[in-house]
Amino acid sequence: MTLKVDETEQGSWTVLQIRGELDLVTSPVVRQSVHEAVAEGQHDVVLDLSGVFFCDSSGVGVLIAARRLMKSCGGRLRLILPARGAEDGSHVNKVLGALGVRRLFDVYADAASAIDEECRPLTA
């Protein structure tokens, strides 16, 4: 399976919708997309992971690197996991939790919540 990344602008936020498998082979695509957004001056980035059905440790590494990059440039990174992820545990949510890094990220149920400054992130 390949990975597809679509970029949209929603207010001051760049939303990268990611679909497919986030693994050793495909994670460089996500890394490059985040770097390109920052290079274009976008410092508020949402990674929509609702279409990711598999994520391995290299995918998690890209998420952590993206978080570090956004912090270093004074930006913000938010993740979208489906609302069911908080209760049922989407695959990405389970992987982040199992590795003990879920608490590092601000996670939202959908793009509307992620870009809304009044909405609070979902709890881990």
Structure report:
The chain has helices at residues 27-39, 57-72, 84-87, 91-98, 111-115; strands at residues 3-10, 13-22, 44-55, 76-80, 106-108. With 124 residues, it is of the alpha/beta class. A 5-stranded mixed beta sheet has the order 1-2-3-4-5. α1 (27-39) packs parallel to α2. The longest helix has 16 residues, at 57-72. The radius of gyration is 13 Å and the shape is globular. The N and C termini lie far apart (29 Å).
Topology, element by element:
Blueprint: E1 3-10, E2 13-22, H1 27-39, E3 44-55, H2 57-72, E4 76-80, H3 84-87, H4 91-98, E5 106-108, H5 111-115
Parallel strand pairs: 2-3, 3-4, 4-5
Antiparallel strand pairs: 1-2
In round numbers, the mean pLDDT is 90
Strand order within the widest beta sheet = 1-2-3-4-5
SSE pattern: EEHEHEHHEH
How much strand? 25-35%
What general form does the structure show? globular
How much helical structure, as a percent, in the residues?
25-40%
SS elements, strand count: 5
What Rg do the Cα atoms give? 13 Å
Low-pLDDT residue spans: none
Give the termini separation.
29 Å
What structural category characterises the helix and strand content? alpha/beta
Number of helices: 5
Major beta sheet, specifics?
Answer: 5 strands, mixed
What brief labels describe this structure?
124 residues, alpha/beta, 5-stranded mixed beta sheet, 5 helices, 5 strands, 31% strand
